Amino acid sequence: MRHNLSKKGATFLDVMVSLVVLMSFTGMMVSATRFMASSQQQVRQTTHYNQVVHNRVMALYTTPDWDQLAEEAIDTPDGPVEITYNYEGVHPIYQTEGMTVEVTMGSQTETLTLERSVYVNE
Amino acid sequence: MNKKAYTLIEVMLAISLSLMILFAVHLIPARILQSFGGYMGEVKINQTSQMLSSAITTDLATHFTIDDTPDGFKIGESQYVFDQSGVTRLIDTQAQQLTQTPVEFTLDDEFLYIASPEQMNYHAQIDLVFPLMHTSFEVEGETHE
């Protein structure tokens, strides 16, 4: 048994379908905007992080006593970058000293391994 | 519900839908384009920072002399020219555009500082420091070890 939609029913259905399509489109656009904003924030944070790591590593190679370094935090516009040093001592054969540097920003952690000649302290 | 009330609801619905369509068509794409512009700006700053860091670190590791020049400085054979269009690295006859945004530098006996001009957005700053240990720095014939 077939039932035909009345004119009002058809109009109501049209309106509902249009509403769903419009809401989906708006939702997609809002998601895209949020994605762009979060990506922008992520790139900005990466830039600050890379610059802090670059500047700190560069400075470390001119710092005389690696075994005296204490844990520190460097402020950036996106939050602090925490740096922990772990001195690994002098290699008896190669006469180099090594150190691992653990850099943390938010949930991101990176471990760097540095090595240099012991004669730099002289 | 009488016919007038039903018509009123229909009119209200039509106005609401029209406003939503206007909002969706005009504001959201504009906001996406704006976000995209901001995103690309951040990517450019990131690239600038990486390119400068990589180029100068490489040159400092392989050459041991920095010369102050009128429009920048020279590390070994690489000449860095700073102007309003950004930083260009000249090696022999080859020119490599490192940045497309203006950057300033300060050179003293111990460090080379590269930073964005102060008037730029605080969140989009370039701030790089290069120690000049093991290099000699020359200004107008005067050498600092």
Main sheet record of chain B: 7 strands, mixed
Structural class call of chain B reads: alpha+beta
Number-wise, the strands of chain B total 10
Q: Low-confidence spans of chain A: pLDDT under 50, at least 5 residues? A: none
Count of individual helical segments of chain B: 1
Distance between the termini of chain A: 100 Å
Measured by residues with Cβ under 8 Å of the partner chain's Cβ, the largest interface is: A-B, 27 and 32 residues
Helical residue percent of chain A?
Answer: 40-55%
Total number of helical segments of chain A?
A: 1
- Largest sheet strand order of chain A: 1-2-3-4
Overall 3D form of chain B:
rod-shaped
Taking Cα atoms only, what radius of gyration of chain A do you get, to the nearest Å? 29 Å
Main sheet: strands, sense, barrel of chain A: 4 strands, antiparallel
**Gross morphology of chain A:** rod-shaped
End-to-end C-alpha gap of chain B: 93 Å
Helix content of chain B: 40-55%
Number-wise, the strands of chain A total 4
Explain what you see.
The complex is a heterodimer of chains A (122) and B (145). With 122 residues, chain A is of the alpha+beta class. Chain A is built from 1 helix and 4 strands; from the N terminus they run αββββ. A 4-stranded antiparallel beta sheet of chain A has the order 1-2-3-4, covered by helices on one side. In chain A, a hairpin with a 2-residue loop joins β3 (96-105) and β4. Chain A is rod-shaped, with a radius of gyration of 29 Å. The model of chain A has no long low-confidence stretch (mean pLDDT 86). With 145 residues, chain B is of the alpha+beta class. Chain B has one helix at 3-62; strands spanning 65-69, 72-75, 78-83, 86-91, 94-97, 104-107, 111-115, 127-131, 136-139, 142-144. In chain B, the strands form 2 sheets. Chain B has a 7-stranded mixed beta sheet, covered by helices on one side. In chain B, a hairpin with a 2-residue loop joins β3 and β4 (86-91). The termini of chain B are far apart. The model of chain B is unreliable at 140-145 (pLDDT under 50). At the A-B interface, α1 of A face α1 and β8 of B.
